[in-house]
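Observation: inputs received (chain + NGO).
Thought: call the complex predictor directly.
Action: predict_structure
Action Input:
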Amino acid sequence: MSVRTSAAASIADVVPAVVSGRSAPDADFQLTPSTTIVAAGAAEAAGTYLAEVLRPATGYPLPVVPRESPDGGIVLVLGGADPRVGAAGYQLVVDRRRVVLRAATAAGLFAGVQTLRQLLPATVESRQQQPGPWTVCGGEILDYPRFAHRGAMLDVARHFFTVEEVKRHIDLIAQYKINVLHLHLTDDQGWRLEITSWPRLATHGGGTQVGGGPGGYYTQREYQDLVAYAAARHVTIIPEIDIPGHSNAALSAYAELTCDGEAPPPFTTSGTAVGFSSLCVDNDSTYRFVDDVLEELSALTPGGRVHIGADEADVTPPEGYRKFVHRALAIAAGHGLEVTGWHEVLRADPPPATVVQYWGTSGVDNLVAAATARGTEIVLSPASRAYLDMKYHRGIPIGFKWAGFIDVDEAYNWDPGSFLRDVPESAVLGVEAPLWSETLTSRDDLDFMSFPRLPAIAELGWSPRSTHDRQDFARRLARHGARWTAQGVAFYPSTQIPWPA
Ligand code: NGO
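Observation:
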């Protein structure tokens, strides 16, 4: 398949769709070797990010300067935006003399920068110098998100991915205004974060992966670097420690977490069974472990929110599960942490402040509906829509199909505001697309499963319902293939998208 690599871009092609935009073709702005990026104070970081994106392909110096010169430039301003942009949106005006991006916050400016790069030809995404001209589509945009939580989840437990691989993934998802990366750090097959008080979690529990490969783990220093890298892209990392089930890696490292006092062997089969492991909910050492892990995690989590999993605890006795969840929530609160859990956590009847991540397929769940009536907020990851590990179709060699095949249509054609029966849109915190990695081993696998479906979920999270239009989305997405090609993204060329010939 060939994807056209150079084409003018337009406000009408932006993904996620903007709240309101008007193209003015006679007001195009040209980037030249003397263009400056004007950004001062708290706006400077967004300016620097923009310059770093644009320099390789243009070959222009694009200095970031504190004051505008008479010949204009790209101007990033904190303040003075239309109040409708709120805390996360931005306003962009492009005319022949200058580009002015305004927002109330650095996050809003960063979102605007992501839009601005999409108003340049796709070749601007190349890391090698390309021929211009570098035209920014003229016009005006007012834009802000529908939902606060626009997440992607990456499972680094089933197969380990390096810091560099995760950083690259963060840059790719941030383009689509994703602002949360939920990292699934522990599971039966691997424990991926150094915990200094329980060192064997990482050194032993991190020593393998699905199929028995070498695995790996992040030292705390590496993990901090990852968190800071994400934060600089306005992406908050939510770390998940999956307990009390999905815990074989921890059990294999510390026998005192088991009920029979015998550490099981590492789970290294190429099979991908779930629901067979549990921390022993009656052991004091289990709660010491939870306390120590969450204490260390709280110091590594500036976002202040952790995910405790709590899914598929099929071998935890029901009463024990309830007791465990309540103690874990109390321990988390003691360390100043807010908590999210997969929707099974509702079986323990947690307080409404616990955010619940729905991963069912039908949208019908009485516990979820009842919890939202008491004030619980929901993150939507319906497996039949948002799971990026589902195959696009039967012929795809990687991925699962237990929740159905998900091509772009299935990923895009639903409404997070009305998906759950008896749950009002006001209870929906946002959407999240999980990428489970039982069958994914390489960076190309991550790309292939994420693109183009992740942008579909990102659009559901950002764009107003009124912009939802399957055909228009497909048309806009078609223009992004050339961007991914220029970025070296190994995307899936879905036959549902009219890619340019
Ligand atoms: C389930 C399960 C995960 C699997 C995934 C595979 C949840 C929340 N728990 O989703 O352990 O990896 O399916 O699709």
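Thought: report the result.
Final Answer: The pocket of NGO is lined by residues 274, 311-312, 342, 359, 387, 389, 400, 436, 438 (CB under 6 Å). The two ends are 8 Å apart (CA to CA).
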